[in-house]
Amino acid sequence: MRVSMDIELKDVPGQMLLALQPLSEFKANLITVLHHHQKRTPRKTIPVQLVLEIKPENIEAIKAKLEENGIKVVRVGEHRFRESINVVLIGHVVHTGIQDTIDEIDKTGFAEIVDISLSMPGINLLSSALIRIDAVGKEDLQKALDILKKVSARKDLLMVLPIDIQA
Amino acid sequence: MKTVRCSILGFGAIGQGVAEVLLMKKEYLESIGLEVLVVAVVDSKGATVNPEGVDLADCLARKRTVGTVAIEKLTGVEIIRSIAHELVIETTPTNIVTGGVGLQNMFTAFETGKDVVTSNKGPLTLKYRELMEAAKAAGSNFRFEATVGGSMPVINLANEVLAGNQLKSIKGILNGTCNYILTRMLEERASYKDILTESMELGIAETDPTYDVEGIDTACKLVILANAIFGRDATYKDVEVTGITKITPEALEMAYERGHVIKLIGEVSRERIHVAPRLVPINHPLAVRGILNVASIDTELAGEITVTGKGAGPIETASAVLSDLVAIYGNR
Prior knowledge:
The complex is a heterodimer of chains A (167) and B (332).
Chain A: E1 2-9, H1 15-25, E2 29-35, E3 46-53, H2 59-68, E4 72-79, E5 83-91, H3 98-106, E6 111-119, E7 127-135, H4 138-154, E8 158-162
Antiparallel strand pairs in A: 1-3, 1-4, 2-3, 5-7, 5-8, 6-7
Chain B: E1 2-9, H1 13-24, H2 26-31, E2 34-43, E3 46-49, H3 56-66, H4 76-82, E4 87-90, H5 100-111, E5 115-118, H6 121-138, E6 142-143, H7 155-161, E7 167-173, H8 176-188, H9 192-201, H10 210-213, H11 216-230, E8 239-241, H12 249-257, E9 260-269, E10 273-281, E11 292-299, E12 303-310, H13 314-329
Protein name (chain B): Homoserine dehydrogenase
Binding site for L-homoserine (chain B): 206
Binding site for NADP(+) (chain B): 10-15
């Protein structure tokens, strides 16, 4: 999951190292660092904004470790679901368990099915569904599509993907 | 004036289209210093031969009234071996299982040092490398623009006009029948079966439409592009193929409401060859309607270049044959 984190560093040497060490320890991938040296807080500390790629279960541990190192964590905000695509499914979408299809994606934690349009013209006819998948990032979206591809193959559903996605 | 003696092997729709275009373009060809003399026309029943040049108008008239041009019981291979000429125009029907007579015609042409221009996908899908090697060993020219996208110049555009550009991928609609069916299904909100029947009645789909609707025709064209443009040694087995037979009017409509059309898209790069129905934004250059074909070439230096045109039709396909002929003999 991608999260933003606002921290405050004391204006003494070695503080940045203390901030980055817990991130490395918990294998967080640092995407951006904005170091606002000119914008001191009333407490004379230096605000720093971080964006991290991180496992959700490690957030609290990182926070605790930073606080232990004397670094104030002001805010942690999740950047969820930045990518979104539509996918068409054709086949016996409902009879093969639509809830199960949704669950397979939702349980990943990094992607969700957020909208479904469904058309069932007749009991023996193929139904069609247009689903929207939101995901945290591009890679997560691709992972969600790989899962959907396996589910579709198992349920004999035709999956129609957007042209700009690796099929 | 340079005289190019040629044979037309296969006198179905495409072969007849070539004959018509040669008649139509006689003056143009002469203006660039070429006299194209057809010394033999062959169909499945036999041949008309005249080393001084057959009467193409007469061949067309006889084909349309009698159903054949056959005067002598000669095959393409016999013509290639026995009649002096430089160029074999190979327009026999595509057979992707065995290569059909086209494969024999092409190998025989190269054995005897002749040039080949063809519209026949089968031999190129099956034996691309062997054919190229045979052509090279013989010092023969071998051109096949008409095998992919009819009149739409893809191969020559990529290999000649865009020479020097590294090409990343080609994506497009390479089968007019599928495009027609999907376009009509959306417009009429009609089932796949209904529109397929309509397409057969209009002669847009073949009596056996399997090659088109299962994506096989598109896959074969991609194999040719993979080999001719991306330097691969691919065959049909290397293509992941999904056709359009499962597409429903409801799916088309739902996609359309969200700004997309569903198209059968073929995609080829150095890494993969893939055919499947895809969601294409309505305003995307690949969202062409009806029987049109379209190809978008992603290039290193020039970005995406998209061409569109009629993918089939005797005269349109013959236009690609003509351009290949001029490319070989026009500037020598």
